[in-house]
Structures are given as structure tokens and as C-alpha cells.
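Hi, here's the filled form for the chain we discussed.

Project: internal
Contact: R.S.
Residues: 346
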Amino acid sequence: MNQIWIIARLEIRRAFFSRRALWVYLLALFPAALFLGRAASVHYDRREYAAKPATPAAILDRLPAGTTDKDALAAAGPPIRDRQWRRGEVEHRSLHYFDGYNRVWLQFENGALKTTRRLPLHSFEQDTRIYAGVFQYFYLRLAIFFGCLGIFLNLFRGEMIDKSLHYWFLAPVRRETLVLGKYCAGLIAAAVIFGGGALLSFAALLSYQTSADLETYLQTDALAHGLWYLLAAVLGCAGYGSVFLAAGLVLRNPIIPALVMLLWESINGFLPELLQKLSVLHYLQSLCPVPAPLDPSAPPLARMILSPAAPASAWTALPGLLAVTALVLYLATRAARRLEINYGGE
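And the returned structure, exactly as it came back:
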């Protein structure tokens, strides 16, 4: 254990600051930048609509279909925005109101009210679903996947390219110890980068909520949701990291294991239940506290690929993922015993 820790300390700088893996930080910070942009948009909308007159919702609700635009203007008063256009033989008009909470559009055709559409100025429930979608579709499937590819493949394959791996093999250390030490260094770096990115994006999500929504969420689910997202990110680094570390020991071209692994994770929903348990993504999605939204109008093939399999319970997902990781690391240590250095082939 002491040797593993010493190796991890020596390798941690390479794992954090390797020139080949600096793009990993961009992947980790992209969701936070996305929600910070959303925060700026929400604050702008609040300032804009705070200066506009609000029409009581009760007045807008009393306008039935078929009401003329003149009667609607007489009852609701001047709108925030008034758009008129003609399409074919139909004259369209859209009156935009604000009732203090929702944006309301009254849609007229040939002077008669056709539909009334409401859109909340800001919906906390919708934002939590958006965050769940970004976390599961982008962060788990792409950011952590390719981030671990960049970090863990460099631990052995990068040293082969730099022609420095033989120095480690000359040290009086068992190769199993060397593999575990390098894995710990990569895991610490990946967990800090992507765990920190997950917490930063979660904090950005909370930064623009109303005080009432934020207080309620902090008193109920905020801590649990934040911890589960953090745990899913860290375990994703552990699972994918073990796979790419082993690939760096066995295979010369990193594109091949990445494509195979990405394909395996993508077709997880088509596989039998036993094979689904060999997928890292299956366990990670089971840990997420909010299911990812899926557009019902999406093509059937996209829905089948994006829809997760029946989730495992949290207490099944944790040991299942750790068991898969341990199995891959064991295979990696076996491969390291037989590894022979041939810099001429790199």
C-alpha cells in the first residue's frame, strides 16, 4: 500500500497536467458554462419582465376561444408585444402578455382567438429535468467517457510514446503495484476534475432559482441529489478509467477500444439482462436521482438507444460497478505481467 501511494503521488502531476489531456478540463466545465449561461438568461428575463405591466391571470383565463382581438384588447389592455402577419388567406395576430408568473400568448386567426399558450418565466422542475438530461446524456456518456480516455490511456501508453516506461520496470516494484499506483493517480485526477465539474454545474443550477424554490429544495432533496450526482461522476471515472487503463496496456491504438466501448454502452438497452450488468453506464444511470427526460417525438431508434434499461437499485448498482471495476483491474494486472517494451513498434 505504501508503494502504491508513492507511485500515485509521483504520477498525479502527469495525470492532472499532461499536455495530451488538457482538453479534459473543457469537457468537465462545459455543463457549468451551460448553466451559467442559463443563469444569465434567467436574470435578464426577470429584469426585463419586472419593468413590464402584468395582466392578472384571471382576466386572461376568462377569454374563451372565438373572442375577437378587439374584445381581448379591451378586456386585457395593451399587450407587451403585438405581432401581425398574413399567411395565404389567413390573417394571424399574436398578443403577448405577462401575468406576473407566466408569459401568455393569445393566438388569433382572422380576428378570432384560436389558442392560448402559457410558458412559465422560469420553472425549477423543468430545470432539474434539464440538468438530469445534461448529466446523463452528455456528462456520463461523453464527457467522463472521453475524459477518462484521455487521462488513463496516457498512464501507460503515453509513457511508451515518450519512451520512459522502462524506468518504472527497472524499479524494485511488482507490476501489479505499479498498475494500481498509476490507476489511483488517474482516479484522483479524474474524480477531482469531473466530480468538481458536476458540483460546479449543480451549484450553477441553484444560483438562479427563486428564494422560495431554493429554500424548499435545500430543505428536501438538494443535498441528496448533489451527493448522488457526485457519486455517479466519481464511480464513472472509476469504471471507465479501469477499462482504458487496461486498454492502454494491451492495445496500441486508443481509437479501437474507445469505439468498441462506446458502441457497447450505446447498445446496452438491446442486450440481455445479464450482459447489461457488464456495462458501466447501466449502473451509473441507476444512481442518478432524477430520470433523464426523453422527447416522445424523437425517432424510435434514438429513443431505444437513449432509453436506459430497467435501473438497478442503488445498493445493487454500487457493488455491481465496483465488481466490474475490480475485474477489469485484475485483468490489467495480469496483462502487465506479460508486457514487454518495444519502443520501435510505437
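Let me know if anything looks off before we file it.
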